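In this supplementary section we document a worked example of the pipeline. Step one takes a protein sequence of length 387 as its only input; no multiple sequence alignment statistics are reported here. Step two produces a three-dimensional model, which step three serialises into C-alpha cells for compact storage. The input and output of this example are shown verbatim.
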Amino acid sequence: MQSIELFAGAGGLGIGLCQAGFRPVQVVERDRWCCDTIRENRRVKVSAVAHWPEPLEQDVRKLDFRPFEGKIDLVSGGPPCQPFSLGGKHRAHSDDRDMWGEAVRAVRQVKPSAFVFENVKGLTRASFATYLAYIVNQLTYPDLTRGTDEDWTSHLSRLEAHHTAGRENGLKYNVIYRVLNAADYGVPQRRERVVFVGFRDDLGIEWSFPEPTHSLDALLWDQFRSRDYGDRHNARVIGLTDPRLLSRALKLSERPETGAWRTVRDAIGDLPDPKHESTEAKGIHNHRYQSGARTYPGHTGSPLDLPAKTLKAGVHGVPGGENMLLRTDGSVRYFTVRESARLQTFPDNYRLHGSWTESMRQLGNAVPVELARVVGNGVAKRLAESA
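The serialised model returned by step three reads:
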C-alpha cells in the first residue's frame, strides 16, 4: 500500500507504518538535520528506509498534492506540535508553526483511503478543547474549506452546522482520536501521544484503536511477586522506591494476561557503559558518553527498572531536558543517542545525524516506532479487508 509521509522528522512514524506494510512515495520534511538523518540511512541501506524516496527538504505549504489524487492509500504525519506542547507557549491556532491546516489540505487534495496523524498530549488540554474540535471537524469534512476572510471560529461554526444537517455530499472521513501511552504497547518509555485515524466514508470501514498489550501491573508482578524480572536480568531490583508502587504490587492477586511494561534495563541493559568502554570499536553507532548531567527539581532521571520518562527535544531548559538515566546508586548520566533511540524503538542500525543535542532533539520529537507499527497494523488490516 502506498503512502505520503508529511512532517516526517527523523522518521519514527514513517518507519513504524512502513513495518506495517505502507510504502511512502513521498516524504516531506523541511528540517535539514532530519532530512540528513533520513538520507544517511538511505545511503547505508538501513532496511527501514532503504526503499524510501529522497526526502523533500521543503516547506509543506509550497507543495501541490493533487497529482497523487486517488493513488494513495494513506496520508500520515505529525504536524508540528510546539503550539500545543506542555513545555511551549500554548499559542495553538495563533502560532504560525501550526500546520494542521496543511495536513487537512493534503487530505483534501489526495483523497486517500485513510490517514494517521499524531500530536502531543497537550493538544487535548481543556484550554484547547474548541480548537481540537476544529481539527476533527476539518479532517471530517476536508472539502469544506475556510473562506479568505473567515476566522477559524466562524469556520468551525459552519463545519458544525454542516455536520448536524447530515448532508452526505462531498468528501467525508470518519475520524476518531485517542491519547495512547506508548508503554502500553511495548515501548520502554512512558510517552503519551494523541493519535488521529480517519477512513474515507465511502469505504464503510469500522475500526477501533488496538487494546493495550502491556501493563504496569504485569511488570510489578514480575518484579515483586514472581521475581522473574530480577532472575532474567541476574540483578536485584532496587529501582522502585515509590511506596505507592510497592503497595500496588502487594495487592495483586494474580499476574495480568498482558505483557509487562518494558523498562530502561530491558531496553539498554546489554549495551556497554559508554564512559568506560570504546563503543565505536564495538561497532555501536551513536553510543558516546555525554557529560554534564545533573538533577534539579522536576528533573531526576529515569529509574533503571521502570519505563523511561518521556524523552524531550531539548527545549525545556537544558539540552536534552530530562533525558537522563538514574542509576541504582542514585547517580545520573545522560542517555546516549543510541540508548535514546532504543527507548524510541528505532532499529539498532538507524543512525542519527548531527551532534548529541541535535540528535536528541530529533529523537525527542519522534513517534516511537513500535507505537506507529501497532496502529499502522490495525489500519493496514482493515484497508486490506475492504479492498
